[in-house]
């Protein structure tokens, strides 16, 4: 998750801590790290990423620079050596302002026996937050103004031919990105239209009134993009519906269920879960950050796997213990959140306007690194993706 604040390379970042009342109620040896020259999986026809019956995939975003897209093999290998584990998933970004497809990045990741997670963001330069829609507005997407680019991106994804997780327009239930429902009418009701999607037999919580302009506009754009990419034959894309754990604002119209485009458009349910990132925030343990949001996201669909598409916390010893936060996160996911089948750690450090640093890296302190290494050493955390034959019908509606 890009957090709010100043990044030395120009990327802005944001995090929101929850209102607690809403929560309802370096010892591992490197034997698990294989060299990058390990053979690639044999080409046995179209493959997809299996949802593991036991365990969950471990992954990371590794401080890939300005546009979060400077992927290098050296960077991946250095992180794996640091934490003592190969990564099943490597995350990076593809911004619409670049008008390109990240083929080189995806090939680096795949050849290292990882699956890419791409944050595909309809965002124009200079990629600053809190400034509202730009030329890649949701309305322009719906109107077809960017169909040529979407088709080109879809063609490239199809030609890449290997599984890709794609998080399109993530954290739409916040206010920091230009595709936020906040900027498209927010909670203004739409008369004479059907209710938003609710899983049959579910009322969570007390039903979802609506529909509302902001979420409905987002859903139209999301479905438009998915439909066009699939129409190009890119059925190797696994679509991640990626929210932030606590909606901002915390109003009924902005609940994640309002944005859910329906099961035909989503392969994995995802959300971002961050602890403290700035000194003007309150320290909060991992439990309250995940417990209620886990219930909320699982209620969207009873069968979809859940991914922590981004998670992390800053190193602020004067406020809280990062090592305990990390240990708790890696331990309680196995014990308490069985539908979480992947977790992508945000390994980054940046400077804020006041000169202070927000350090979310795994090695922000020896204690934090030891906690991370010990946690991911658990065999529960799977270090390589399980690839299985893709269904011929996968990706069709």
Tell me what the structure shows.
This protein is α/β, with parallel strands linked by helices and 397 residues long. Strands 2-3-4-5-6-7-8-9 form an 8-stranded parallel beta barrel, surrounded by 5 helices. The protein has a two-stranded antiparallel sheet with strand order 1-13. The longest helix is centred in the middle third of the chain and has 19 residues. It is globular and about 55 Å long.
Q: Largest sheet, if any?
A: 8 strands, parallel, barrel
- Radius of gyration computed on alpha carbons: 20 Å
Which whole number gives the mean pLDDT?
Answer: 88
Order of helices and strands: EEHEHEHHEHEHEHEHEEEHEE
Tally of individual helices: 9
The secondary structure category is alpha/beta
- Can you tell me the CATH architecture? Alpha-Beta Barrel
Number of domain units: 1
Terminal Cα separation, in Å? Answer: 30 Å
Shape: globular
Tell me the name of the CATH homologous superfamily. Answer: Glycosidases
């Amino acid at each position: 998750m890009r957090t709010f604040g100043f990044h030395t390379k120009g990327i802005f970042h944001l995090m929101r801590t929850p209102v607690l009342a809403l929560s309802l109620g370096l010892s591992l040896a490197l034997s698990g790290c294989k060299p990058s020259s390990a053979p690639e999986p044999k080409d046995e026809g179209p493959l997809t990423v299996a949802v593991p019956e036991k365990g969950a995939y471990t992954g990371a975003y590794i401080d890939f620079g300005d546009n979060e897209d400077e992927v290098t093999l050296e960077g991946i290998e250095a992180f794996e050596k640091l934490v003592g584990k190969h990564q099943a998933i490597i995350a990076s970004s593809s911004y619409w302002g670049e008008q390109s497809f990240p083929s080189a990045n995806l090939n680096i990741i795949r050849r290292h026996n990882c699956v890419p997670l791409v944050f595909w963001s309809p965002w124009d330069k200079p990629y600053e937050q809190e400034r509202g829609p730009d030329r890649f507005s949701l309305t322009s997407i719906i109107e077809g103004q960017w169909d040529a680019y979407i088709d080109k991106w879809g063609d490239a994804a199809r030609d890449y031919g290997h599984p890709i997780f794609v998080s399109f327009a993530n954290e739409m239930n916040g206010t920091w990105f230009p595709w936020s429902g906040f900027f498209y009418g927010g909670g203004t009701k739409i008369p004479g239209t059907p209710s938003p999607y609710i899983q049959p037999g579910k009322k969570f919580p007390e039903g979802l009134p609506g529909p509302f302009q902001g979420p409905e506009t987002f859903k139209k754009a999301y479905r438009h993009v998915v439909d066009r990419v699939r129409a190009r034959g890119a059925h190797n894309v696994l679509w991640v519906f990626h929210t932030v754990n606590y909606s901002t604002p915390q109003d009924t119209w902005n609940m994640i269920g309002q944005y859910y485009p329906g099961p035909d458009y989503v392969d994995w349910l995802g959300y971002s879960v961050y602890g403290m990132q700035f000194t003007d925030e309150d320290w909060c343990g991992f439990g309250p950050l995940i417990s209620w949001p886990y219930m909320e996201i699982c209620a969207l669909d009873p069968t979809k796997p859940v991914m922590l598409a981004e998670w992390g916390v800053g190193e602020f010893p004067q406020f809280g213990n990062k090592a305990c936060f990390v240990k708790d996160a890696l331990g309680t996911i196995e014990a308490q959140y069985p539908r979480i089948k992947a977790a992508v750690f945000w390994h980054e450090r940046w400077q804020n306007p006041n000169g202070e640093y927000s350090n979310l890296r795994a090695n922000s302190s020896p204690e934090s690194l030891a906690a991370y290494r010990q946690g991911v050493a658990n065999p529960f955390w799977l270090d390589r993706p399980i690839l299985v034959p893709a269904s011929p019908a996968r990706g069709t509606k």
